[in-house]
């Protein structure tokens, strides 16, 4: 048995999208099965983790939430650094949040790895009957055009939430070089031999202050990618 701090792979995933689309609730639904009716845009925990099993490997899913900076369009490059997955979320009842997906995609292109696995999420599908403003076809067409995964979810009634996260993690796992998987080794070929468990410690949970969230210049943080 692996203890809580032992895992074979650490997958960092970032949540992005307009304020109010349900990012924080998707995260809490997935990690602790909780939903909150009030919008908490106060500064909170930087990320939450959940261990998942894929193919007899323990994956530590480390999911980063924006803590409200998205309202100021001031997400730092550090937020994206090292991310292997992204959920780009819009609200199916707010057309503007769908239009703004293009802004968030540009952010990803500017700051994230080109290898990142992206899923487009149309959230609040529980409200589809009464107040849908973006059709499933519009969402699907954009995802297809950009080569993304796509799902409609509800953090409120839990529709597709686990499935969305798991599909992204499965896809990231499937993209790992075969050599890594065989060696049970998160770091690649030079690590322990097969069967030997390695223990990696993630950074402890930190809290963001508003100043530390905004005082970095995104451009300087892009890690040399994508001129
Ligand atoms: N009906 C419905 N409301 C939701 C859903 N997800 C989030 N909300 C509500 O939308 C508001 C914003 O959610 P929040 O998670 O704070 O959005 P964030 O700003 O993107 O993190 C809150 O009032 C939530 O209760 C959903 O799937 N369905
Ligand atoms: Mg939030």
Automatic annotation (TrEMBL):
Coiled coil: none
GO BP terms: endosomal transport; exocytosis
Subcellular localization: Golgi apparatus membrane
Disordered as annotated region, ranges: 180-227
Family annotation (SUPFAM superfamilies): P-loop containing nucleoside triphosphate hydrolases
A single Gene Ontology CC term: Golgi membrane
InterPro entries: P-loop_NTPase, Rab_GTPases_membrane_traffic, Small_GTP-bd, Small_GTPase
Principal location class: Golgi
Presence of keyword Glycoprotein: no
Ranges annotated as biased composition (Low complexity): 200-212
PROSITE patterns found in the cross-reference section: RAB, RAS, RHO
Protein origin, superkingdom: Eukaryota
Topology term for the membrane: Lipid-anchor
Keywords from the named record: GTP-binding, Lipoprotein, Membrane, Nucleotide-binding, Prenylation
GO molecular function: GTP binding; GTPase activity
Sequence similarity: Belongs to the small GTPase superfamily. Rab family.
Annotated protein name in UniProt: Gtp-binding protein
Organism field: Lichtheimia corymbifera JMRC:FSU:9682
């Amino acid at each position: 048995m692996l203890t809580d701090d032992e895992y074979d792979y650490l997958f960092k995933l970032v949540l992005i999208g307009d304020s109010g689309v349900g990012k924080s609730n998707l995260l809490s639904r997935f990690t602790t099965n909780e939903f909150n009716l009030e919008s908490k845009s106060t500064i909170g925990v930087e990320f939450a983790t959940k261990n998942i099993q894929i193919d007899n490997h323990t994956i530590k899913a480390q999911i980063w939430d924006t803590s409200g900076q998205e309202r100021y369009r001031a997400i730092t490059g550090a937020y994206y650094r090292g991310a292997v997955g992204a959920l780009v979320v819009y609200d199916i009842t707010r057309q503007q949040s769908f239009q703004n997906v293009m802004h968030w995609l540009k952010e990803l292109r500017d700051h994230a790895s080109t290898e990142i696995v992206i899923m487009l999420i149309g959230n609040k599908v529980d409200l589809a009957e009464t107040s849908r403003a973006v059709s499933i076809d519009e969402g699907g067409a954009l995802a297809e055009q950009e080569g993304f995964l796509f799902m409609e979810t509800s953090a409120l009634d839990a529709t597709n939430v686990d499935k969305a996260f798991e599909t992204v993690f499965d896809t990231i796992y499937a993209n790992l070089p075969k050599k890594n998987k065989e060696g049970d080794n998160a770091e690649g070929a030079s690590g322990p031999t097969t069967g030997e468990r390695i223990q990696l410690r993630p950074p402890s949970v930190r809290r963001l202050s508003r100043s530390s969230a905004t005082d970095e210049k995104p451009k300087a943080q892009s890690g040399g990618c994508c001129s």
